[in-house]
Structure to design on (271 residues):
């Protein structure tokens, strides 16, 4: 097993137990055409309008029971034609890795252009104990590499891509129909509001903070964007308010003595 998958599947659940760092939404259908599947500590998201469904992220590699999850939310993954990836980490992009079963076999994949370097192994993803560790996800050729703030129209669904480098170099957020923000792993949110995502998992924390400042400014200064919901990678779904960006100059922190989110599960990986 490749190291990043081994860490994600075997090690992470043990070292993160009791630190309450994540509070993902439960699998189900929510307001505003939003649905999600929970896979342990992470969510993959869906948005449906007028019979068209787009996906945001793909979750873990070969996650057991995902077929039942799709049945639960009433979505046929083979009918999804477009999936927007926030970043290429194993818990967000593993579901379309060529070494496993592609949960969206008929979908065009979109992701930030700078993520390509992780997918080819030309740059490392993180350094731990002096060891440079590369991402092991590989996806099929033909994906669309998003360059800066591109906009898309998928069957009447408007998607605005927003580069938010820091967690990874090509990390990208998406604003859908001017009302839903999909944040991937740039934000961690608890009852006090939003923080820059945990340094332990973020490759360039200072860069991430600067990206969040720009993201907030874009939203605040737009005449069209009127956010209603924020859908995160690990903090679930939140109604949009001023607290979402309240602490973006600080990195979220976790420990057993000081959990990040008191409402989060003690062990996010219990199924």
């Amino acid at each position: 097993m490749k190291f990043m998958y081994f860490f994600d599947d075997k090690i992470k659940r043990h070292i993160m137990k009791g630190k309450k760092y994540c509070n993902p939404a439960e699998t189900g259908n929510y307001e505003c055409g939003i649905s999600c599947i929970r896979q342990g500590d992470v969510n993959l998201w869906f948005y449906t309008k007028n019979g068209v469904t787009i996906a945001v992220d793909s979750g873990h590699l070969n996650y057991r029971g995902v077929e039942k999850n799709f049945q639960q939310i009433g979505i046929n993954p083979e009918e999804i034609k477009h999936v927007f990836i926030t970043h290429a980490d194993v818990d967000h992009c593993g579901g379309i890795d060529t070494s496993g079963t592609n949960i969206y076999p008929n979908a065009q994949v979109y992701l930030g252009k700078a993520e390509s370097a992780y997918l080819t192994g030309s740059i490392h993803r993180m350094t731990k104990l002096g060891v440079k560790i590369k991402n092991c996800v590989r996806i099929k050729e033909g994906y669309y590499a998003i360059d800066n703030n591109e906009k898309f129209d998928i069957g009447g669904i408007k998607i605005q891509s927003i580069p938010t480098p820091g967690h990874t170099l090509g990390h990208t957020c998406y604003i859908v129909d001017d009302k839903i923000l999909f944040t991937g792993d740039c934000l961690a949110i608890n009852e006090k509001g939003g923080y820059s995502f945990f340094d332990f998992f973020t490759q360039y924390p200072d860069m991430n903070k600067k990206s969040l400042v720009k993201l907030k400014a874009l939203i605040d200064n737009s005449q069209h964007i009127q956010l209603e919901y924020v859908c995160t990678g690990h903090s679930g779904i939140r109604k949009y308010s001023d607290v979402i960006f309240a602490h973006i100059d600080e990195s979220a922190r976790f420990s057993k003595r000081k959990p990040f989110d008191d409402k989060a599960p003690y062990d996010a990986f219990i199924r």
The two ends are 22 Å apart (CA to CA). Residues 3-251 form a domain with the Metallo-beta-lactamase; Chain A fold (CATH 3.60.15.10).
